[in-house]
Amino acid sequence: MSTLTLHDAQNVMAAAAKRADEVGQPVNIAVVDAGGNLRAHIRQDGAWIGSVDIAIKKAWTSRAFDIQTRDLGENAQPTQQFYGIHGTNDGKVIIFAGGVPLRRGDAVIGGLGVSGGSGEQNQTIAEAGLAVLQEFA
Length: 137
Fold this sequence. Notes:
Blueprint: H1 6-23, E1 28-33, E2 38-43, H2 51-65, H3 69-74, E3 99-104, E4 107-115, H4 119-135
Antiparallel strand pairs: 1-2, 1-4, 3-4
């Protein structure tokens, strides 16, 4: 069984933080394990305090539903199949870009959440973190 180690979480966060520095946007970066439990978090210098909770919830959402939060958000619009999902799970579900499931092979081993920039910035930063985990798969 594949698990998300602390070393994995640190590598993911380092790659995401590097990308955030490259785009010039300080963010919060959170990693949860397969059970949705917080494994690691960083708040870069200058990142919004209000984004701490959002990053953690994006990581949780991406793991809870094994889907990128950006994609869940597209399916959560009025007339779409998951409209209203953000009101479930005591408000923990986040439906905008920046959350990605972390996979090793076919197994989802956790989730990554990034918050503090635009949706596009958060997504590209999250994808940089995801890519480093896939390199070591």
